[in-house]
Amino acid sequence: MTMPEDMQAHNRALIEEFRASGGTPGRPLLLLTTSGRRTGEPRTTPMMYVEDGDRLLVIASNAGATREPDWCRNLRANPAVTVEITGETYPATAVVITGEERDRLFARICEGYPFFRDHQAKAGRTIPVVALERT
Fold this sequence. Notes:
It is a single chain. This protein has helices spanning 7-21, 70-77, 99-112, 115-123, and strands spanning 29-35, 42-48, 50-52, 55-59, 80-85, 88-97, 129-134. It is an alpha+beta fold. The chain has one domain (7-134): Electron Transport, Fmn-binding Protein, Chain A (Pnp Oxidase, Chain A). It is globular.
């Protein structure tokens, strides 16, 4: 997977497309809005998700970077988030999964999306799995 040269511009275009069309067919994509941990300003990030019962899971791989993505750092500071998926927007609480449950979920996610194994190998950190629970 090749990363865009200007990730912010890429994300802005993806958000615009998602909102204009009501989603992205063929991709499990959502928009996650967190509050900036320093500014309190809303920050929206498009990302892949995996369904897990009545909650959605997002993976803070940051494409295998050694640092967590900003959205994950934001939700650690304030777990109240907004989720936009095809056809609906709702408030949720972000819960960082730990221990055996995290390991089990990450293994299951990697079965469907093996590139996350590569991200984990590159990252040099445990990649967080975050549950988005509707409030």
